[in-house]
Amino acid sequence: RFYVKRIIRPKYRLADGRIITAPMPVMAHPHSNASESVLAHIATAKYYDHLPLHRQLDIFEREGIHLSPSTVSNWMMAAAQRLEPIYNELRE
């Protein structure tokens, strides 16, 4: 089951007129609408369950979620880059 997670950042107006906004939380893939759980779900299905990305995209489509193949591919490349230091440590 998928859902949209809304991030609500409080805004405050200071006495001197300046407006400050809370920072965005750290995301696994900045400037993306995919959460860490979505990336983990896709990677697990691809590498553990041997479910190719195009089949996963068909599943997402049936759920009413339209994703471009290049977008999902970029997410997987970004996730691999983020995990590379851990992989290198495990190899040693």
TrEMBL record:
Q: Which InterPro entries match?
A: Transposase-related, Transposase_IS66_central
Domain Transposase IS66 central, chain residue ranges per copy: 32-91
- The source's domain of life comes to Bacteria
Name of one Pfam family that matches:
DDE_Tnp_IS66
Protein name per the record: Transposase
Q: Give the species this sequence originates from.
A: Agathobacter rectalis
